[in-house]
TrEMBL record:
Protein name as catalogued: Putative beta-barrel assembly-enhancing protease
Known EC number: 3.4.-.-
Family according to the record: Belongs to the peptidase M48 family. BepA subfamily.
GO MF term list: metalloendopeptidase activity; zinc ion binding
Gene3D superfamilies: Metalloproteases ('zincins'), catalytic domain (3.30.2010.10), Tetratricopeptide repeat domain (1.25.40.10)
Leading EC class: hydrolase
Pfam families named in the record: Peptidase_M48, TPR_19
Cofactor note: Binds 1 zinc ion per subunit.
Amino acid sequence: MRQFLRTTACICLSTLLCIQPVAYADQDLPDIGTAAAGTLTIAQELEYGDAYMRILRSSSPIISDPVLDEYITSLGHQLVANANDVKTPFHFHLIRDRSVNAFAFFGGYVVANTGLFLHANNESELASVFAHEISHITQRHLARHMEDQARRTPLTIAALVGSLLLAIASPEAGIAAVNATTAGSMQATINYTRSNEQEADRFGIATLARAGYDPEGMPDFFGHLADQYRYASTPPPMLLSHPLPKERLTEAKNRAAQYPKVNKPISLDFHLAQARVIARYAGIDSTQSLDWFARHLKKASPIIKPTLEYGQALVYIDNKKPEQAEAILTKLLANDPYNNFYLDAASDLYINKKQYDKALDLLKKALQRKPNNPVLTVNYANVLMEANRSKEALPILQRFTHDHPDETVGWSLLADANAKLLDEAEQLAAQAELFALRANWNKAISNYTRSSQLAKLGSLQQARYDARIDQLRLEQQRFSALK
């Protein structure tokens, strides 16, 4: 299914990976994750994290792509399952930006730029970025940094965090109020200390190894990144904020060498995700992307070739060349009929060809094997809507948004379905949830108020809208109190 995007200015909330000299044995890692427990509670961190994420949705080009979301969430949770001191749920998101960047913030949120896929050579290298950021969260580095700031200033922790919230955006508008210079200053304000970076490096490599990835992924990624930008006039944000002198890379290699060598099999999903980013999120035109795929196909191994062909198929679909795309996808699905990357692309293809029953048949069979799978469910509902069967899509989307209330793609589709069914009250309600997810509380409440006015007086529907208005007002008050 084609992506749902909101593209505006991008901001940074935290810092990136950095490699530092450390001790090596995994058992030498101290239990220091609770050092900030007396400053910010886990509940407070979750509340701040939710607020930051709502602002980020309104101010940055967050990608709402079910296929990519499923991939990075799976990768991230595999790492989290092998991390130390996990005390919060984790959420993983992508920003459409070609620069190499990633950051973590309160409440278990890890956000990465799509540019990481353009520079990582394999899944272990990509996983090393996520492992480092996960370690910043598990060790509560931002909370501990705030505690240190509070000791040196007359401000309280709440004031420090609240001022950061205000610096990011206007709570009323929910739109970014910072330019590139301000964003850089804010990043410097909350920059992790040298010891924080050391901890994140060593915990990250340990997590990487326990999760079955190659611990060499971290030094390898930064090594070739440093080589690539050694003489560049404008290095990526990561290298501007955290230069990588030779001794840091050496120390990272030494630490990774303390773990057994891992010969991890090639990840098909990583290369499919990479191809999807190049085809749809790299900001290059179809001619350039097709040329990239063609050049890499000439030297690709048999394992990698299907992923590059998948990328070609996406470009053909997006440029209204269904015949070329179908020839590729038919072959790919014959070899791997339940691959979500292929099924998602096939859904787009058959929608373009108006062969809705063909798409529904493919998805229905896949859902029998993977019931309630988010990628398949969203695609199935989308095909029904394109086939003018929105009434059938409606209960599917209602269930999906109930199970995944933070997924903007579900609410977008639900709003569209209700619009096609001429149900203005429910359309406004779904749009209100999108506004709330972007911290636009006034518009969310306004939408629900209008929905309540449209509903039958005294009906259960009106009572539901009024109850949601009360909830949103409380959420707005809590959000405002954070500043």
